[in-house]
Amino acid sequence: MPILSPIGRRAPRTRALVAGMYVLLAAGAVTMAWPLLEMCGGSLRGASDQRERTLVPAYLEDDAALWRRYVEALANESLDLAVANLDADAISFERFPEPDATPAALVDAWEAFLAGDGAAARLQGLGFIRAEVSRTVPLAMRTFREELSARFGGDFARLNREWGTDLSGWSGFHLQVEDRNSRRNALPPGPFSDAFLEFKARQPAWMCFDFSLEGFYRRVFLRSRYGRDLAALNRAHGTEHASFGAVPLPRRAPAPGGARADWELFVREIAPPAFVRVDGAAAPGDLSAVEAARLSLDTVEGRFRDHLRARFNGDAAAAGAALGQPVVSFEAVRAPLAAAQHRRFAAAAPAIRREFAVRNFRTVVDHVARHGRGLRNTAIYCALAVLCALIVNPLAAYALSRYRPRATYAILLFLMLTMAFPAMVTQIPAFLMLRDLGLLNTFAALILPGLANGYSIFLLKGFFDSLPRELYESAELDGAGEWTIFWTLTMSLSRPILAVIALHAFTAAYSNFMFALLICQDERMWTLMVWLYQLQNRSGMGVIHASLLVAAVPTLLVFLFCQRIILRGIVIPVEK
Question: Which ranges constitute the DSSP H helices of 312-419?
């Protein structure tokens, strides 16, 4: 029979009351679901979009937002590398612009030049290998590590021994970002670098970028000297450039003045020797004693202009007609760096979007898989915790309910008093006791302190008291022993409440972190929560959110599997 009769529901006040109840329930559902949705959205984000206030990251729907994330990953989260090699003006990845409209013929000419110039192709860099800001494991880094792990059979000590490296481990495995625009960031020679260069040559075009020495000169070097003050640069150089992007990098030293001083400083101290020539020959390591008139630059952009000059026999007008834009002189042609990169991006947009959506989760799963002993320890710990909870607590509650000793309520009060002390208060005494017993770094140390639970015994006793006494009397008349009555009768009728106890024991064991770390300080005994904590300490917010979602999956699956039994455990004691 319903609480409200059909006639009573028609009253305006009753309808308003029911509507208010539904509004409150809906508000409660939203407040419970919103943090979970925020966590789901946060697990898909990186450094450039972690401050977005939307539940769904913009890059999943918007190609412009995906381009910004792509540039961030391509430049290995280095803004200087991005603005230099894409020759773009940006103050952050959140505001990184899409390239201006560029004739397709010019981009085709650039791609054809790169395909035919082996030296230019070798000067390409590899993205997706470092994430210092978002602190995740990008695609190229992850793939290279997997290849090395397969090559050395997962033996990191063997890799260090054979290649003479001192890398700390697979989880702490990092690669140095190539920056061929600066002589200070060259890869050290050796078998490790050779393996990386061979790996880079096999990667798809959208994961690689073209180094631009001219872009580095304009966007990084000059900005470091003049800030964003274009007027100060024009005064020093005696020019009238409309933007930093219009500042050229001459092949040879300009006329004496501010521009020449900057050019000489850049060539002598900043530009890598691979781009510097001394009267046409390769440059030595020390350029301080070489006359400026003998110095020149051999950049990829300069070779591209020479390629166009040879292709069109020095006819600038013909080049302009073929390339789809006016060409005043070949020296004024700018390499379409950003447009070419955007074309590669557009061709691989689905794969890029998929990589950003899963890479935080891949980082978590990879970390957990490389520490598989944590999964084993957690499975054993949870199984033992549930088994002991389903044996010790029912036996104690059965004794109190079946035999009703005089001190029953005093015992229950004592058991309930244990709930008054937070777990943090008892951790140190428990540690000292287990240390004196010699049980540290064992499963016994994890199980014994929580073997009996006061609240579980109290809950079970209440449920056992609700069972009909006639059943016990009938079982005794039939000659059943005490163990048969307990196991066959009491435990069979108590499955709902036992499911609640089992879920509580599983949740407590699975989520146990601080006590597990305190009692088991040996890495071989660490549980999954401890390993995830170690991962979170060196990861960004996206990986942290992903790890929390991954950690919540087992508890969610157990709850969904047992929900009918759990609901019966809530309803039946109330009805009885």
Answer: 316-323, 337-347, 349-370, 372-403, 408-417
pTM, to two decimals:
0.83
Q: What does the DSSP assignment read for 462-479?
A: HHHHHS-HHHHHHHHHTT
Quick check: 64 and 118 in contact, CB under 8 A?
Answer: no
111, 269 contact by CB (below 8 A) = no
Most confident stretch, 212-226, 339-353, 418-432:
339-353
Contact 449, 430 (CB under 8 A): yes
Contact assessment for residue 108 and residue 339, using Cβ atoms and an 8 Å cutoff:
no
* Predicted confidence (pLDDT) per residue in 232-289, tens digit: 988 888 888 888 888 888 888 888 888 888 998 898 888 888 788 888 777 777 777 7
Which residues have C-beta within 8 Å of that of residue 331, sequence separation ≥ 6? 248, 305
Using one digit for the tens of pLDDT, what is the confidence trace for 130-164?
Answer: 888 888 989 999 999 889 888 988 888 888 888 88
How far, CA to CA in Å, does 159 sit from each of 154, 189, 200, 432? Answer: 9, 16, 19, 41
Residue with tokens 């005994």, as numbered in its chain: 525
